[in-house]
């Protein structure tokens, strides 16, 4: 069956349909990963997007239950150069085609994905429509023009109620803005007692859980569209250690008074990131459309810890007074090496250091603390 991909600038691609025989609207983006297409399909951060895979052959190792990043795929549609019909992998339980059919997601193959990627790089992210209908291009353009990009992605992908993954270690409250399963696996591997809460959980509700630390998860869309989460983070800042990942990084920056802006075509796939402290470069996995503006950091208390080696954009922040830091990339992912997983260890170290200060170890003499004028002041100071 024939499928067509129409962009808002009028560019039309014609190829072969796979997956569901339905229409899909969304922002057309590209990702540069050579492997990991299943993780892309099931990453909640891709909610609202038609994803173009720049690697030309997709589907060759099928789909396995154990590699899902959430319970279902969240992309709007999929664009590939060549779709492999017969995967070679003893673990495979689906083909790419059968998975997309099950979740009513259309795909298009056999188009020039290099041309499409170059167009996105030059023009920026574009709205698009995948269709198998025989409607005229004029009619399709009218439909696409009337479509407005999703603004409630976080509400769509966040958990609707709190749930617990018990452990005997530090209690980590995860604010779920579209949390990947790999983040929870990293915390579980370290023995943490995990409580996952919806994105709109208030600061008072989180305090009642008595967390040792708070993790702000990844997620889709513009961070400014969830102001309640920004307010919650600002109210908890300084009371308990905070670690932000991807969207969580942007939300922490906004909570501290910094500003964010949309990138032209975003960062998706594998990107080199330099840690300023060690001057070491890491290969990281990324998926985001927005970045923190360096010009907005003055007076926020935030210092840059990591930068993107390609375009110099901010990839990591640390608060100079409060126990809080963040990464724009995904330390739980494995774009080859797993060398950026150390950030989870740094988070737990920060929690233990914070608890040691509050308990004045080794004497174990407790003292009270309160937040005064935006700073944590101890009663015996």
Automatic annotation (TrEMBL):
InterPro entries: Anth_synth/Amidotransfase, CarbamoylP_synth_ssu, CarbamoylP_synth_ssu_N, CarbP_synth_ssu_N_sf, Class_I_gatase-like, CPSase_GATase1, GATASE
EC class of the enzyme, as a word: ligase
Residues annotated as the enzyme's active site: 246 (nucleophile), 330, 332
Record-level GO BP terms: 'de novo' pyrimidine nucleobase biosynthetic process; 'de novo' UMP biosynthetic process; glutamine metabolic process; L-arginine biosynthetic process
Pathway connected to this protein: Pyrimidine metabolism; UMP biosynthesis via de novo pathway; (S)-dihydroorotate from bicarbonate: step 1/3; Amino-acid biosynthesis; L-arginine biosynthesis; carbamoyl phosphate from bicarbonate: step 1/1
SMART domains documented for this protein: CPSase_sm_chain
Similarity comment: family membership: Belongs to the CarA family.
Protein known as: Carbamoyl phosphate synthase small chain
Organism: Insulibacter thermoxylanivorax
Gene behind the chain: pyrAA
């Amino acid at each position: 069956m024939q499928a067509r991909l129409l962009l808002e600038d009028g560019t039309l691609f014609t190829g072969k349909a796979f997956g569901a025989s339905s229409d899909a609207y969304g922002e057309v983006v590209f990702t540069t990963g050579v492997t990991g297409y299943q993780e892309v399909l099931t990453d909640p951060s891709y909610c609202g997007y038609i994803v173009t895979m720049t690697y030309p052959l997709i589907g060759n190792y099928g789909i396995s239950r154990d590699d899902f990043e959430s319970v279902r795929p969240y992309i709007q549609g999929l664009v590939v150069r060549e779709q492999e019909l017969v995967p070679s992998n003893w673990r495979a339980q689906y083909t790419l085609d059968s998975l997309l059919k099950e979740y009513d997601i259309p795909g298009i193959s056999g188009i020039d994905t290099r041309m499409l990627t170059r167009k996105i790089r030059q023009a920026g992210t574009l709205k698009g429509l995948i269709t198998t209908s025989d409607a005229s291009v004029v009619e399709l353009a009218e439909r696409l023009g009337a479509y407005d990009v999703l603004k409630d992605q976080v509400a769509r992908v966040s958990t609707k109620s709190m749930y617990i993954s018990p452990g005997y270690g530090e209690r980590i409250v995860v604010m779920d803005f579209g949390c990947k399963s790999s983040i929870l696996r990293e915390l579980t591997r370290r023995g943490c007692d995990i409580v996952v809460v919806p994105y709109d959980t208030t600061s008072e509700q989180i305090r009642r859980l008595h967390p040792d630390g708070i993790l702000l998860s990844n997620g889709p869309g513009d961070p400014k569209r969830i102001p309640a989460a920004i307010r919650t983070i600002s109210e908890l800042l300084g009371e308990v250690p905070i670690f932000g990942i991807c969207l969580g990084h942007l939300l922490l920056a906004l909570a501290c008074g910094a500003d964010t802006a949309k990138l032209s075509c975003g960062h998706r796939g594998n990107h080199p990131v330099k840690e300023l402290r060690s001057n070491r470069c890491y290969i990281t996995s990324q998926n985001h459309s927005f970045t923190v503006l360096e010009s907005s950091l003055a007076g926020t208390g935030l210092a840059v810890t990591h930068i993107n080696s390609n375009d110099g954009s901010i990839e990591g922040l640390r608060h100079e007074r409060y126990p809080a830091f963040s990464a724009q990339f995904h330390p739980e992912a494995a774009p080859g090496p797993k060398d950026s997983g150390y950030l989870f260890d740094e988070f737990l170290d920060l929690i233990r250091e914070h608890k040691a200060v509050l308990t004045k170890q080794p004497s174990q003499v407790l003292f009270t603390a309160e937040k005064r004028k935006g700073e944590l002041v101890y009663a015996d100071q």
